[in-house]
Design a protein that fits this description.
Layout lengths: L4 E4 L1 H9 L2 H15 L7 E2 L8 E4 L5 E7 L4 E6 L7
Parallel strand pairs: 1-5
Antiparallel strand pairs: 2-3, 3-4, 4-5
């Protein structure tokens, strides 16, 4: 089956630009080879982030995304820390 398309929000683009080259490469690899193929592999979030998923990028950084099955599209919302940095 064809992988999901990947779209970044403006906030995720800002986060991406702050990542190190190594983390940018790792992010691209995770998105293309893992999440785009199996969108629900991340942790399903609850509370105010219900409907979103989280996938570990590094010790402190997470990829926060949502899935549109009808359009077969992933929306990347954040690619940086959730620990207040």
């Amino acid at each position: 089956m064809k992988p999901y398309q990947i779209r970044f929000t403006q906030e995720a683009i800002k986060d991406f630009n702050k990542l190190t080259p190594k983390l940018k490469h790792k992010l691209r690899d995770i998105l293309e080879n893992t999440i785009a193929i199996e969108p629900r592999c991340g942790k399903h979030l609850v509370g105010e982030l219900s409907g979103f998923y989280s996938y570990r990028l590094s010790y402190k950084d997470r990829i926060v995304y949502s899935v549109d099955d009808e359009a077969r599209t992933l929306f990347i919302h954040r690619t940086k820390t959730h620990y207040g940095d």
